[in-house]
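We now fix the convention by which a protein and its fold are recorded. The integers have meaning only within a learned vocabulary of local backbone shapes. The record below shows the convention in full.
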Amino acid sequence: MKYQVFMDTGDAVHLWLCPDNPSVTPTIEVSAEGREPVKLTATVRMEHFADLGMHQTGLVGFVVAEEQFAGIESALGLQIHCAETRLRIYSRFREDQHNSEKLFFFQPSAVPQMAMLSQLSRNFAIHHHFLESHSFDTINNMIHHSGRSVLLSGRVNLLRYADPLHVMDFKTATLINNPFNELAERLLLCRAVDLAQSPTPFDQSIKGLEAIADFARGVDLEDGKLLRRQFRMLSPEAKEAMSNPLTKMFGAPMHERVQRSHVTFALENLSRFDLVSTVPRCVEFGSILRDILGLKHFEYGESRTFKSAAALADTLARIPSVVDLLDHDLAFYSFVEEAVGIGLDSADVA
């Protein structure tokens, strides 16, 4: 899906929405506080969409004005969603409520800090999480959103989006987990989602981790001897899914085999971020992030994860094949941990 909201004049919002199915005429839903939602079908024909083969008819444009949504100029909490996917594509900026910055929070952890994301979201007019569950085109549209006050977060490849993020003046931040803790959390998350056998808040988090889920389904995570044997017999798919996810995310191009040199690239890329910290220092991370952005509604405490994650991480750290799987990430994390410690300690002294 592709879309763009290119103008809000107060009395009208102008946008286009091009669905994945080029034969479908798109529909949006407009809502506001205290108002019944209104569904609208595209009425503006944009010929170049048809000329380029992006849509059969080019009927993808909308003008949402008084005639379509009465009282639009004074409507509080005005929002526009894609009626088919329920994706929010626009939310009107409110000076008294929203931060005017744009932030891309690279979230390497499969188990995100939900409390922090919830607190952060209150400060932004537009916010999208779990970006790994969206297509490249949709994420690109989110980044190129013409408005201010945008928060995006997810487990996506940095190199794929670094240039548009720079062009669109996004601030960038990340919170890095210890590689053994991260693998433990991924295994426990996949097991929890599998056992639930029904929709859970974390279903979106296992996008791309299907091979890990297959592995977790067949082992006893509390049996260290069995885990050791199972890790020696990993399928190629599971090995690829578990191998060095941090270095892949920050230093390697998509679908390229991770090498030691990518650790250096990842560290260089992180050096250009506005804020980098580690999960054990998340309280300091939250405090600094609040100051950098001037957030009005943000208080954040200790990190949260599965109760059994620490014990499983300790077990994984004693399995040689796991250490081999995470070799590059362990080197990467040690450098990040040291740099974060030096930075925070020097800030305390200052």
In short: The chain has two domains: 1-92, 99-350.
